[in-house]
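User: I'm designing a mutation panel for thioredoxin-dependent peroxiredoxin and want to avoid disrupting the core. Could you give me a predicted structure to guide residue selection? Please restate the sequence first so the numbering is unambiguous.

Assistant: Good idea. Sequence first, for numbering, then the predicted structure tokens:
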Amino acid sequence: MLQVNQTAPYFAGVNQLDQPLTLTDFAGQTLVLYFYPKDDTPGCTIEANDFSTLNAEFAAAGAKVIGVSKDDCASHRAFIDKFQLSIDLIADTGGEMCAAYGVWQLKEKNGVKNMGIVRSTFIIDAHGKLAYVEYGVNPDGHAQAMLQKVQTP
């Protein structure tokens, strides 16, 4: 698993509009990169709505918020349209970003073990270093807690 002060793993993906996004696109600014299991599911919807609600405050603090899941661009567009989300979502359909950030892990639910995305958030500073790392995120209140972290020098 990744740790604070490590260089953030490089990524290249596409957002909901099939536009390319890479780590270098965010050089010089703070990036809040959060990984979530699936579009339009309860915890993921809470997190996406909360990040969207606070998006202007993140921007005022010099931070960009981007969500990542293995859902495709069409699923991301439907999720954004349904909830009027104001954040970009990267379609990591091949799982390369999930692997690089260590969020693709064995999970257990109701006694059944499967591989899946562990809800996780990474704050990447303007120099491409990991300023904050959290695996196993609880979506309730998480966006607000991340906002406080980017607002605190």
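For picking mutation sites, this is relevant: The helical segments are 42-53, 55-60, 73-83, 96-100, 142-151. Residues 42-53 form the longest helix (12 residues).
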